[in-house]
Design goal:
The protein has 270 residues and is α+β, with helices and mostly antiparallel strands. The protein is built from 10 helices and 7 strands. The chain is 48% helix and 13% strand.
Length: 270
């Protein structure tokens, strides 16, 4: 997918908005208030977070595409989002789900009609300045992983859809426009990790305490094989490669290293 063509991501966004909104809207009051898999957060916190993110990316895209000023303000990201998260949570499951459906429809309609120039305009995110088109990937990431958090919190743990997982991995591992995930350790020695999906698609990463990048060739220190839906979760810090769904070969400390590089499920935060 070209960097400034968000069409494929927007198709997935439409599917995920429908699925995650349905899940949120069906929550009971008891489920709304029960603990989630995200440390210190209730299911209501995770739901409000993902719904409010839909509002944030919508406003950021609108402001960047149609404002005459290149000096952009971040809208409801980081600490500034907490009051709005609380307002969304106070709506309750059904109204929060309805809000997300409305946000999603508006976001998809607007980005689908943007010109290449508008899609290339800068917009601010907590991770830095990104082109408007990037926000389609960001929104898909939030829906995919926090939708997974909600299902897992309700006892429905499993991988992401394989095709969705592979698509998400392709932009998560794009060194030019990465999707933020778990914080990485600053003490990591350099390693090469080969991720290989069941479909045959693979990514060779060079990781260290200074960051990571994609490699075009060379031998890996260790290889991680799994369905793309599981690989995406591992890279996002939601699954351990020591789980039965993964096949690991190479260095003996591969699972420990991978957890330090990409995050451990025991330290999940939304």
């Amino acid at each position: 997918m070209a960097a400034l063509d968000p069409s494929k991501s927007l198709k997935y966004v439409a599917e995920q908005v429908d699925q995650v909104s349905g899940l949120i809207g069906d929550l009971t009051d008891a489920q709304w208030n029960q603990p989630s898999n995200c440390q210190g957060w209730k299911i209501a916190d995770v739901a409000a977070h993902v719904v409010r993110n839909g509002e944030s990316v919508l406003y950021a895209a609108l402001f960047a595409a149609f404002s005459a000023s290149p000096e952009l303000e971040m809208i409801n990201y980081g600490p500034a989002s907490r009051p709005r998260d609380a307002e969304v949570q106070a709506l309750g499951p059904k109204s929060a789900a309805e809000l997300q459906r409305a946000e999603g429809a508006a976001f998809i309609a607007i980005l689908s009609r943007m010109t290449p120039e508008q899609l290339a305009r800068p917009a601010r995110h907590a991770s830095g300045v990104r082109p408007v088109a990037w926000f389609a990937n960001n929104r898909l990431s939030e829906l995919s992983f926090h939708g997974w958090d909600l299902r897992t919190s309700l006892g429905q743990r499993g991988p992401l859809d394989s095709a969705l997982g592979e698509h998400v991995l392709n932009f998560m591992l794009d060194p030019e426009r990465p999707i933020p995930s778990s914080l990485r350790s600053k003490e990591l020695a350099e390693r090469r990790i080969l991720l290989r999906a069941s479909s045959g698609t693979s990514w060779l990463l060079r990781t260290s305490g200074q960051g990571w990048g994609l490699e075009s060739g060379g031998s890996p220190d260790f290889t991680v094989e799994a369905d793309a839906g599981w690989l995406a979760l591992a890279v996002y810090g939601r699954a351990r490669i020591s789980e039965p769904a993964f096949k690991v070969s190479g260095e003996a400390d591969a699972a420990e290293y991978f957890g330090a590089a990409f995050g451990e499920p025991s330290n999940i935060s939304a």
